[in-house]
Every structure is written in structure tokens, then in C-alpha cells.
Amino acid sequence: MAQVFQVHPENPQARLLKQTVALLARGGIAAVPTDSCYALVCHLDDKVAADALRRIRGVDDKHHLTLLCRDLSELSAYARVDNRQFRLLKAATPGPYTFILEASKEVPRRLSHPSRKTIGLRVPAHKTLQALLELHCAPLLATTLIPRDSAEPLNDANDIRDLMAHELAAIVDAGACHLQPTTVIDLTAMGDGGEALVTRLGRGDIATLGLKT
Predict the structure, then answer these.
(1) pLDDT (tens digit per residue) in 146-160
(2) Residue 56 zone, left/alpha/beta (φ > 0; ψ -120 to 50; rest)
(3) Taking the CA atoms of the chain, what radius of gyration do you get in angstroms?
(4) Widest pairwise Cα distance in the chain
(5) How far is CA 116 from the centre of its chain?
(6) What CATH number does residue 187 fall under?
(7) What are the respective helix, strand and coil percentages of the chain, to the nearest 5?
(8) Containing domain of residue 67, as a range?
């Protein structure tokens, strides 16, 4: 049964986030707020937890999971990033964007796309999530909290508790999030001189990045 931690969205209580970090370290799955909608997260290096994350979300290994990073320097440790890609990333982070990039050797092969060897990465702007990442001291593996057999994300902690409490270790309740998921931008072609490709329009505004669909 999930433990529900009610935190202040602007000044989250560190003691509650530390309890969430402890549950993640023991292989738990947590629902956390982001600057788009809620997400499911687990420890990056825990294969059993990653498999459970996919099972709860109802996706297979071809679905891009995302690494939630504290900042661009951390993101760059888990992806191959050239100068063109870095400039776009710098303009868009932190914010509600997910970027598809070639995974570095730091990413376990089981977590990258099986044929493309790519990974989703983002640097969120939500203060509670940033505080959680700081206490965790590493990226978290994540996916948008969309229930199985549904097309819509959940954005309210009470709804998440009612539907998924038996599958999660923790729910971090910082109030309702937005209903839109992130905008997803594939940057892999930029590494070969191509252009960024918007693969999902979400909350992140592509016009501010000079991109078009």
C-alpha cells in the first residue's frame, strides 16, 4: 500500500522526500508531480523496479522510458550531445520537454530503445521534483502516469491513490499538476547534420525553441 506524502509545492518538506528516496532505494515505485503531469518513477539501476514500472504503465521495452535529471550536466552524462543539440537543450531546460538522444555507456542497455539505442531525457522545473532529485543524488527512471487502458494522464494525487495505491510504494502529493504530458523532441538526427523532430506536442511550446511540427 502506497504511503502518501503531502508536501508544500514550493517548499517541500525534506523529511518527507527523504522517506520517498528510501522507498525508491528499496525497489519501490513512486508517483511524483512534474511540470507537466504526474509521473511514475523508480531507481535507475534496479531492473526489477524498471520491469514493474513498465508493467504498471502497460508498455513494452520499445516504449521510451525517461531519465529525470537535475540539470544539463547530469543529462550530458547519460546521452551523447554535440554542440547543436546542447544549444537547443540549454534553451529548453528546465521545462516540460522530453528529448530523445543517443544513450551513452552510462545507461544500462536494457533501458535504451532495443533497436535505436536511444533514451528519453528531461530536466523538469517542478520544485518538489527537483528537491527529490537532489536528495536522490542521481537521475530517476520515469514514465508519464497514464493508467493502463487509458489515454489520459492522472493529475490528482487522490485519483492516483484510489486507482494505484496497491501497486505503488509512495505518492508525493504536491497538489494537482497540468493535464498535458511533455512535448517530445527527437534530437538524434541533429547528430548527423539533420534537424530536431517533434514527435509529440505537449505542454512545452515549440515556437519558443524555433521549431515547427
Answers:
(1) 988 888 888 889 999
(2) alpha
(3) 16
(4) 49
(5) 19
(6) 3.90.870.10
(7) 30, 20, 45
(8) 3-209
